[in-house]
Specification:
The structure holds 2 protein chains of 2 kinds.
Chain A: E1 2-11, E2 14-24, E3 29-33, H1 40-48, E4 55-60, H2 69-73, E5 76-79, H3 91-101, H4 108-114, H5 130-142, E6 148-152, H6 160-175, E7 179-184, H7 187-193, E8 196-201, E9 204-210, H8 211-217, E10 222-227, E11 242-248, E12 251-256, H9 262-272, E13 277-282, H10 286-301
Parallel strand pairs in A: 3-7, 3-8, 5-6, 6-7
Antiparallel strand pairs in A: 1-2, 1-4, 8-9, 10-12, 10-13, 11-12
Chain B: H1 3-18, H2 21-42, H3 55-85, H4 88-93, H5 100-129, H6 137-161, H7 165-181, H8 194-199, H9 204-216, H10 225-245
Helix pairs in contact in B: 1-5, 2-3, 2-5, 3-5, 3-6, 3-7, 3-9, 6-9, 6-10, 9-10
The chains are: A alpha/beta, B mainly alpha.
């Protein structure tokens, strides 16, 4: 579907995208995450044929996205970061306009129904909520009957219910044969729907792979929480691999690095006869990976 | 680019234009109101200071400058700026159409609506004040469209240089109002003091008004050559600068 080799984007002397390579397979949902200014949008714009790469090879559906961009644009659907539409246009008019731009458009009536927008068909864009505008963006991205869609910060501005709806929809579309590339700030989103993820920082692709593998690579250990009002401060510090312990009104949060330290903690509590409840162990997710990256990049630049 | 697609894009833009109440008022209603006002006060009897023409006779070709200015200096640059600011131009870039076809459709819509505004004005003048016309219709139409093209290039330059909507609105107003009042496009040029008449020579709309009046009263299109030359110069300079500075996003 997509193959990117040593892609580089430069604005003057500033290197926005620094030599990245990755590929996306058919029917995959691929996520690109990273802090603001990491180069995500610049990279994706090269793949969409909206920006000319400085160097490197990009191939999308067998086409060169820059040289064959008008041919490519017949085959892909795009949702750009914060595009607005004409306020005094009605929803159906925009749908009709976009249908006229493509050789083989999908019936927009059905798309509006799937997205729950059919009641807004006659509304002006100016009267739509943030969520409805995002949904309209998706409808317009799907009108080309694409094999591949790009969604840049898809659920920004949506409420939790609408986000979950959107995720279900994307999974449904993928099941129907669509390949999806998303850019996101939201780690729960990437974890919920992406098959693979690429993490960008300072223009580089720091790591890529299946979601679970990516978080493991960062060796972030695990988080253990439980309630034990009798536990004293400092008691667990001696246990090997424990990196931090915090107590807050009887709730204990222990961070462990590397080897699992749960058995040792439980042994300690039993031996001392300290009662505990509400025990939970969380594997670190992309959220932690993301926060760690932001810290690293701050440390480097500051 | 298929003609059919272009037609649909243009029809869409035309529909949006017709919903813009301010544009529609200043284009279709305001010129006629002005004409009724001045015509009502001064009538349309031949007057020596207008070389034997009536106030309405001399106002109608001059108002072409006003009508063209509304679309060329306000509607066109502000819409293009808005489309850029809202990333609508960029969004079109990601579709199979050439992005310039959106700009072309804006030109077409504005030119079309300008012609309608002018026709309404002529019709009102004919019905109410029995407007006299002594020129060659083809020459009048040619000068009208050439003037529109020339002023649109200035509008396009405003859209190219303005960094955002706010700036575009400020620049457009700054250019539009002097053009409206100092060029004869609303107040007859002959009534302006000599000093103002000299100053207004630098304003392009003055040359639109002059060349329109020339052909309206039956002189040949070639006798307006100094005015048309200024407009041609404006067209060349603004187009060249726009091509250099226009940004899609």
């Amino acid at each position: 579907m997509i193959k990117v080799d040593n892609l580089r984007v430069q604005y003057g002397d500033f290197v926005a995208v620094d030599d990245i390579s990755f590929s996306v397979a058919p029917q995959e949902i691929f996520g690109i995450i990273g802090p603001n200014g990491a180069g995500k949008t610049s990279a994706i714009e090269c793949i969409e044929g909206l920006r000319r790469p400085y160097s490197g090879e990009v191939s999308v559906l067998g086409l060169n996205p820059w040289k064959d961009r008008k041919e490519l644009h017949q085959l892909i659907g795009v949702q750009l970061q914060d595009t607005a539409y004409q306020d005094n246009a009605r929803v159906w008019e925009l749908c009709q306009l976009f249908s006229a731009l493509y050789p083989n458009p999908a019936p927009y009536q059905e798309l509006l129904e799937t997205m729950g927008l059919e009641e807004k068909k006659k509304s002006f864009i100016s009267s739509l909520s943030g969520g409805e505008r995002q949904k309209l963006s998706i409808v317009l991205a799907l009108i080309p009957n694409p094999k591949l869609v790009f969604l840049d910060e898809l659920t920004t501005g949506l409420d939790p219910h609408a986000r979950h709806q959107m995720w279900d929809l994307l999974l449904q579309l993928r099941a129907g044969g669509l390949t999806i590339v998303i850019i996101s700030h939201f780690m729960d989103e990437v974890e919920a729907i992406c098959d693979r993820v690429g993490v960008m920082e300072n223009g580089r692709l720091v790591t890529q792979g299946p979601v679970s593998q990516v978080s493991n690579k960062f060796n972030l250990g695990s988080k253990i929480t439980f309630t034990a009002p009798q536990l004293q401060a400092g008691e667990l510090d001696g246990i090997s691999n424990v990196t931090s312990v915090s107590l807050n009104h009887g709730t204990v949060t222990v961070l462990c690095q590397g080897e699992d330290c749960l058995p040792e903690i439980l042994t300690y509590l039993r031996d001392k006869g300290i009662p505990y409840s509400n025990l939970s162990v969380t594997r670190p997710g992309l959220e932690e990976v993301f926060l760690k990256l932001v810290e690293q990049s701050k440390a480097q630049s500051g | 680019m298929k003609i059919n697609t272009m037609t649909k894009v243009t029809a869409f833009e035309l529909r949006l234009f017709s919903r813009n109440v301010i544009n529609m008022f200043f284009l279709l209603v305001f010129p006629t109101l002005m004409l009724l006002l001045f015509g009502g006060i001064y009538g349309n009897q031949p007057k020596p200071e207008f070389y034997g023409h009536g106030t309405v006779d001399i106002s109608v070709p001059a108002y072409a400058g006003m009508v063209i200015s509304i679309t060329g200096l306000m509607s066109l640059p502000l819409t293009l700026c808005e489309y850029r600011e809202k990333k609508i131009l960029k969004r079109y870039k990601a579709t199979p159409i050439q992005p310039w076809s959106v700009i072309l459709s804006q030109f077409i819509v504005n030119i079309l609506m300008t012609a309608i505004g002018m026709l309404l004005l002529v019709a009102a003048a004919k019905v109410v004040f029995n407007l006299r016309f002594e020129g060659d219709l083809a020459s009048v139409i040619a000068v009208f469209y050439f003037s529109a093209l020339s002023l649109y290039s200035l509008g396009f330059l405003i859209a190219s240089l303005a960094p955002n909507m706010k700036a575009a609105t400020a620049i457009a107003n700054l250019v539009y109002y002097p053009m409206l009042f100092l060029t004869g496009a609303t107040i007859p040029f002959e009534l302006l003091p000599k000093v103002m008449q000299k100053i207004s020579q630098v304003l392009p709309v003055t040359h639109i008004v002059e060349s329109m009046k020339t052909v309206w009263f039956g002189d040949s299109i070639w006798s307006a050559w100094p005015n048309l030359l200024v407009l041609a110069g404006l067209l060349v300079v603004c187009t060249a600068l726009s091509l250099r500075f226009f940004r899609w996003e």
